[in-house]
Amino acid sequence: MYDVIIIGAGVVGCAVARELSRYEVKACVIDKCEDVCSGTTKANSAIVHAGYDAAEGSLMAKLNVKGNQLMGELSKELDFPFKRNGSLVVCVNKEEMPRLEALYERGAANGVKGLQILSKEEVKKMEPNITDEVEGALYAPSAGIVCPFNLTIALAENANANGVEFKFNTEVIDITKKNDIYQLQTNGEMIETKYVVNAAGVHAGEIHSFVSRKKYKITPRRGDYFLLDKSVGDYVSKTIFTLPTKFGKGVVVAPTVHGNLIVGPTAIDIEDKEGTNTTKEGLEELIKKVGISVKGVPIKQVITSFSGLRAHEEGHEFIIEELEDSKGFINVLGIESPGLTSAPAIGIMVADLLRDLNHLSKKENFISKRKGILDPSTLTMEERNELIQKNNTYGNIICRCEMISEGEIIDAIRRPLGARSLDGIKRRVRAGSGRCQAGFCTPRTLEIMVRELGIPMEEITKSGGKSYIVMGHSKETI
Ligand SMILES: Cc1cc2nc3c(=O)[nH]c(=O)nc-3n(C[C@H](O)[C@H](O)[C@H](O)COP(=O)(O)OP(=O)(O)OC[C@H]3O[C@@H](n4cnc5c(N)ncnc54)[C@H](O)[C@@H]3O)c2cc1C
């Protein structure tokens, strides 16, 4: 019997778990996937938005600006990559300059600090590869870029260190309420709890329907991306947007915190809530539109493409509330962009709500800090040599593209809530994220996993479920 069950181990569920773990509470996060960060949180633009885009006075605007402000301190506390690189919204048409000014006004009203409208010359000086058609741009110095995987993993690990349990491969298939207790029927056990937080992303509408007469329609709005090689990672230094449309913020060109260049997304409404395949049409649209803001983007340096699904609710607003007709059930629904940015603020808002509802008291021994996986590339040559002397697995390079050592992979597996799949390792230490996209390192990473997890290679998956990599020994079939 739990006090709180959080459904969904994306950035939102994990942020709620981390903030809730400040209190004396028996809480558990459950997810149908095999790891944290397996839904929308793993496939987005990774931008920490400044906050000029959301409608003035909306909850989305408030949480965006607060989340942006919290991100810097949080990245230090929980040790994940974050950089305030600033953003530009580029205007290429003189007639549209008033729209840029309207964005500036909205941003100022939302409380975004440091906004400036730049002239053509100023923009070109700041970003030489901006299109020659530029008329002006809105500059937001507070915008940033983050590693969505490490942000989420850090939140989860810290929540876990403070007592929150995690159950994976656990899908909620029905919820009933008896005598003020929620009974969550999953694909395995039945779990009882006093409070439920619905942070199930694109599936939050279905979870909500188990307990309420009111219906929410969540449309998966797919966004396709290209990820470009690190050799062109500095093609722009700021995050470059075009003027937004009713479908979103347009095609973005941005550096990533790991040194790649990201181009995307599209915005295509689909039916399938698991439909994260890219399409030829989507990728062609990116190629067509990328030049609107940045000239000559070296798109042929693409190393992979992927897509993510926005949980678009018709009102385009974050819905965070206790249900009127189902007390103790809290929706965190419609968390589309800027959900990643807002997550730290959403976490606080929901934890405050639960504290008040359940009269929770603060934990005396809350652990506020978490140390991430050691990245030997941040060490000096002397420090690195010393590390290898102490532990020679740090001298065994497994992923040659990203220069990831065996020591880092072992840490990714052994730490609490450690990696159990190839993608889990990739999200934690980037083995397989480079130019060859795991072509060379997969067999070597698999060998480490076999040894560390004590399971046969045939049981290791790419991303849980039946995504097995090795089907058997080749000579067995002869
Ligand atoms: C194309 C695109 C670009 C974006 N760009 C940005 C950006 O640059 N900046 C920004 O701030 N935001 C951005 N966002 C938004 C951001 O990615 C999301 O708001 C955020 O990741 C949502 O997190 P979440 O935890 O709500 O959802 P998710 O990460 O999807 O997590 C929900 C979890 O619930 C689990 N779940 C679902 N159903 C069940 C069930 N029945 N039982 C158990 N578990 C279940 C899923 O497995 C999943 O792990 C973007 C989104 C997209 C799609």
Automatic annotation (TrEMBL):
Signal peptide: none annotated. Pfam families: DAO (PF01266), Fer2_BFD (PF04324). InterPro entries: BFD-like_2Fe2S-bd_dom, BFD-like_2Fe2S-bd_dom_sf, FAD-dep_OxRdtase, FAD/NAD-bd_sf, G3P_Oxidase/Oxidoreductase. It comes from the Bacteria. SUPFAM superfamilies: FAD/NAD(P)-binding domain. Residues 397-449 form the BFD-like [2Fe-2S]-binding domain. Residues 3-353 form the FAD dependent oxidoreductase domain. This is Glycerol-3-phosphate dehydrogenase.
